Amino acid sequence: xxxxxxxxxxxxRGPAHGYALRAEFEAATGATWPLNIGQVYSTxxxxxxxxxISTKDETDDAEAGLERRRYHLTVxxxxxxxxxFATPVPRDAPxxxxxxxxxxxxxxxxxxxxxxxxDVQRAASMRSLQVLTQLRGSASSxxxxxxxxxxxxxxxxxxxxxxEHCEAKLVQSKRGAS
Length: 178
Known about the structure:
The chain is mostly helical. The chain has 7 helices and 2 strands, in the order H-H-H-E-E-H-H-H-H. It has a two-stranded antiparallel ribbon with strand order 1-2.
């Protein structure tokens, strides 16, 4: 989920201020996609500029006298959100991946131990997978949180499989060179 559409989706449930949106976004993604509050507010500013949300300063009763901007979804914002849900996410261009670039360069540069790069990343990915699996086990029975955790787990598993594939190709190429 992009931050832009994630915030629009959350605002479709009702008005909210930036800190609440950040907390809801992180909860919805099972804390697998932490957001910087600056990113939230810069995205909200662009959404407001584009006419997809509007703001209203309101006094927060919980903190007497504190004024906060509450963001509201506009009709245009709701239409944009509906368009997004009706449009598939393109798979034609692979996502940019620092890991892919690192592995490719490790294979190209003779002074880099590519096998070591793969081993270090695999160990980190395995640790990440263990943490994600524990998080999923301790997560609430909320379906959205569970599915977000599953996506992160499947991504980590795919990364580990890809690293194993890279190592097999590396071994195969060294055998062919001998």
